[in-house]
C-alpha cells in the first residue's frame, strides 16, 4: 500500500541493470519525489542491437525503470516487458518495450524526448532521465595495462579492472549530461547509488564529468547500496570496502556518506548457476575499511531469495533510506 506524505523527499537514484528497479518500486510506494538517472552504456542483447541499427541510446535499462515507476495495469506491463522467443528470427530476444522506445526515439529524433513522452503515457510517478542523450561507449583499463571497449566485453576477460571511462559512441568525444540531470542532483535531499554492477552500471554515469562533480559537490546524503554477491570479471574477491575505494578513486575524492550492506547469509547452494552464472560468492565485509573511507555503515538483513536468485529486499532497503533522509534533512 502506498504511503502519502505532505513533504516528499527528493531522492535521486543513479545506476542501471536489474537492481535499480527494485529500489525504485519501493521508493514509489513510499511517496518519494524520485528521479532516476540511468546508464546508456549497455551494448549487449536487444539494447545493443537497437542502438546500432536505429542509432539510439540503449533502451533496456530505461524500459525497466519506466515500468518500475509506472502504475499501468499488470497486463500492459506484461506486454511492455514481453520478450520474443529466440526462435522468432528477426525479433528474437527483443522486448516490446525496447521496440516502442526505438520507434518513439526515431519519431522524435531523441531518446530523451521518447522517455519523457512514455513517462506521461505510462503514468510514471517520478522523473526518468538517461545519463546522456546519446549512447556511450564504456572503456576499461586493466591492472596489466591492457584495455577493452564495450560494456558487454569488459567482464569476459576475467581481469582485474583498474579504471573505466566513457566516450560518446557517435563521435568518441567527451560526453555531457542529459537535460535536467544536474539540476536534479543539485536539488536532491538524498543521492542513491545502486544496487548494480559497480563498473558497468554505476560508474558509467559518474564518469560523465559534470555528473561526477555534481554528486561530489552535493550537500545531499550520498548512499551506496553494496551488491550482495561478487560479479565475475568485475568485483571478484571484492569486499564492501573495496567497492567504495573504487568509487572514491574514480572521482578523486571521498564522497560516499553511508553504505548499506547485507549481513544475512545466502544458503549454501541456493543460487541457480544456469540462470545467474555471473554471480560468484557473497561480498565479504570490511567494516573498518569502510570507516577508513569515511563512511557510516548500516548493516542489516536486506536479503530476498526468489526463484534461485539473490536480490535486495526493496521494502527493507527503502525503509532504511527513509530513516536516513528524515534523520538528516527533516
From TrEMBL:
InterPro entries noted in UniProt: CofD (IPR002882), CofD-like_dom_sf (IPR038136), Gluconeogen_factor (IPR010119)
GO MF term (any one): LPPG:FO 2-phospho-L-lactate transferase activity
Primary localisation category: cytoplasm
Cellular localisation: Cytoplasm
Keyword presence, Lipoprotein: no
Keywords attached to this entry: Cytoplasm
Keyword Protein biosynthesis part of the UniProt annotation: no
GO CC annotations, alphabetized: cytoplasm
GO term, biological process aspect, one: regulation of cell shape
Domain of life: Bacteria
Pfam family, one: CofD
Family note: Belongs to the gluconeogenesis factor family.
Family matches, as HAMAP family: Gluconeogen_factor
NCBIfam families per UniProt: CofD_related (TIGR01826)
Task performed by this protein: Required for morphogenesis under gluconeogenic growth conditions.
Protein name in the entry: Putative gluconeogenesis factor
Organism: Vagococcus acidifermentans
